[in-house]
C-alpha cells in the first residue's frame, strides 16, 4: 500500500531518540521530508543525518516545546524553508518508567512539569501548525501519549496522558471540518535505548535479572513481549498518512495488547 506520504512535510518533536526518532525514520522511509525537533543539538544532528540518509530533506531544529516563542519560531522556520506543514507528530515528553512517587511525595512542581512539556507542549505545537494546515486544506496531527491514560499506578502519568487524549478529541472536532485529522497513540513500555538501563535498575531493586524483568513485562502483553520503537512508529506513520482519514479524534493503543483490559 502506498501511504501517500511522498513529498509531505512533517514536523516530529522529540525526534532525537526513542519513539520520536523511529517515527522520523519511518516517515522518511515513506518519502516524507522531516523537520526533527529536540533540545540536544548533538543527538539531533546525528538523527537528522540518519533521516537524510534515506534520500529526503531533513531539517534539524533545536527547540524546547515548553517555550511557546521557541515553538512558533520553529514552525515559522519550517514554513519559510518548505512552504508549509502537512504532518505534526508530538512526541516530546519527559521519559516515563522510572520510580513512581506516592501521593505524599508528589509535588505540585512535579505535576506542573508533566503538563508543561507533554500537554502544553503538544498544545503549543498544534496551535502553531494548525493555521498553516487549515490554509492549505488539510493535514494530520498525531499525539504520542501512553497507556497510563488507561490504568492507575502513576498519578502524574495517568493525568498527563488522559489530558493529551482530551486535547486530541477537542482538536479533532475543531479542525476536522478544515480537513485536519488528529489522533492519539498510546504506547506502553517500549523497547528503546533506555530499556537496558531501566531493566538493570529494576533487576537490582527486585534482586532478579534483567531477562526476568523483561519476561515479566512481556507476559503482561498479548504478544508476549514489549513492542519496539519501530513497531510503534509503524502505527504512527500510518495515522500520519491520507490513508487514515477515517480515523480521527480517537485513541489507538500500541502496547502489544495489555492483558485483561477491554476498551470499546
TrEMBL record:
Signal sequence annotation: none
A GO molecular-function descriptor: oxidoreductase activity
Keywords, in A-Z order: Oxidoreductase
Keyword Oxidoreductase: yes
InterPro entries, sorted: NAD(P)-bd_dom_sf (IPR036291), SDR (IPR050259), SDR_fam (IPR002347)
Coiled-coil residue spans: none
SUPFAM superfamilies: NAD(P)-binding Rossmann-fold domains
Family of this protein: Belongs to the short-chain dehydrogenases/reductases (SDR) family.
Protein name per its UniProtKB record: SDR family NAD(P)-dependent oxidoreductase
Amino acid at each position: 500500500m502506498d501511504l501517500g506520504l511522498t513529498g509531505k512535510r512533517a514536523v516530529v518533536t522529540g525526534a532525537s531518540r526513542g519513539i520520536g526518532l523511529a517515527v522520523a525514520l519511518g516517515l522518511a522511509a515513506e518519502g516524507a521530508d522531516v523537520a526533527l525537533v529536540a533540545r540536544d543539538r548533538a543527538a539531533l544532528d546525528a538523527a537528522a543525518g540518519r533521516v537524510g540518509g534515506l534520500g529526503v530533506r531533513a531539517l534539524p531544529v533545536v527547540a524546547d516545546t515548553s517555550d511557546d516563542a521557541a515553538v512558533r519560531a520553529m514552525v515559522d522556520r519550517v514554513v519559510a524553508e518548505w512552504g508549509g506543514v502537512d504532518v505534526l507528530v508530538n512526541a516530546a515528553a519527559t521519559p516515563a518508567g522510572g520510580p513512581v512517587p506516592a501521593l505524599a511525595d508528589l509535588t505540585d512542581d512535579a505535576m506542573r512539569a508533566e503538563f508543561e512539556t507533554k500537554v502544553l507542549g503538544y498544545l503549543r505545537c498544534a496551535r502553531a501548525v494548525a493555521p498553516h494546515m487549515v490554509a492549505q486544506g488539510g493535514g494530520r496531527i498525531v499525539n504520542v501519549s501512553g497507556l497510563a491514560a488507561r490504568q492507575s499506578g502513576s498519578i502524574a502519568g495517568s493525568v498527563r496522558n488522559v489530558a493529551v487524549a482530551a486535547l486530541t478529541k477537542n482538536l479533532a472536532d475543531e479542525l476536522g471540518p478544515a480537513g485536519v485529522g488528529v489522533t492519539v497513540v498510546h504506547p506502553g513500555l517500549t523497547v528503546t535505548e533506555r530499556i537496558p538501563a531501566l531493566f538493570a535498575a529494576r533487576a537490582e531493586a527486585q534482586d532478579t535479572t534483567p531477562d526476568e524483568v523483561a519476561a515479566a513485562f512481556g507476559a503482561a502483553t498479548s504478544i508476549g513481549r514489549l513492542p519496539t520503537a519501530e513497531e510503534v512508529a509503524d502505527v504512527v506513520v500510518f495515522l500520519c498518512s491520507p490513508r487514515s482519514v477515517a480515523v480521527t479524534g480517537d485513541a489507538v493503543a500500541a502496547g502489544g495488547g495489555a492483558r485483561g483490559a477491554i476498551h470499546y
